[in-house]
Amino acid sequence: MQAQPPAARDLALFDFDGTITTRETFPDFMARAVPRRRLALGRVLFAPWVVGYRLGVVPVALLRTALVRYAFSGVPLAVVEAAGAALAADVLPGLVRPEVQTRIDWHKARGDTVAVVSGGFDVYLAPWCRAQGLDWICSSLAVRDGRLTGRYGGAQCVADEKARRVRARYDLAGYRAIHAYGDTHEDDALLALADHATWRGRPWQAPASG
Question: Residue 208: inside a domain, yes or no?
């Protein structure tokens, strides 16, 4: 069911990693949530994958899928939730860009609906957003019998999926204006929803078609 917008208010949509924060937070989460021996071996096994990603040979979505499958298969949900909560409380606040925090606070002071739309996981984004008084739309990890399966719980919340989930969650036509903030090409579909789109602190222009 779509959220009903408040009268005469805007909707502000923020990517998280690299937009709100100064760096990617997935490695921080992995360091806390993945069993230590598995993490050490994974650094060796996935080194060629990471190099391939940096060279543009390995798609980032494929890398994430493989990492999640290796890292989290069979890990108890309670362990991962505890790691996510600790990350949200102890690490994420120190990674937030002050100028972006100011912008979030500005939207909140106006009474706008503010949401984080991210490929990151709800186990750490939900507690951080809850503490900020923000909505969140993000990826999740599939669970069976109290343990992670090593798969995503649905599609990764990246690229076109970001825009799809925003449309499913909010009645966009009911808002006075839409603002969106991003920092990579994976945010293009999200930025395309906005009346006021910002990419790395600058006005965003849609990529040329064709």
Answer: no
For residue 210, being part of any structural domain is answered with no
105-137: per-residue pLDDT in tens?
Answer: 999 999 999 999 999 999 999 999 999 999 999
Task: Give the span between the Cα atoms of 196 and 163, in whole angstroms.
Answer: 15
The pLDDT tens digits for 17-74 are: 999 999 999 999 999 999 999 999 999 999 999 899 889 899 888 999 999 999 999 9
Nearest to 16 by CA among 110, 112, 129: 129
As a whole number of angstroms, the distance between CA 33 and CA 68 comes to 11
Task: Give the CA radius of gyration of the chain.
Answer: 17
Q: Decide if 2 is inside a domain.
A: no
Residue 97 lies in a domain: yes
The predicted model scores a pTM of 0.92
Number of structural domains in the chain: 1
Closest CA to 15 of 171, 151, 152, 198: 198
Reported in sequence order, the residue ranges of 27-183 that DSSP labels E, i.e. its strands, are 113-121, 135-139, 141-144, 147-152, 178-182
CA–CA dist 14, 105 (Å, integer): 12
- Non-local CB neighbours of 95 within 8 Å, separated by 6+ positions: 21, 22, 23, 25
Q: Which domain holds residue 42?
A: 11-203
CATH number at residue 191: 3.40.50.1000
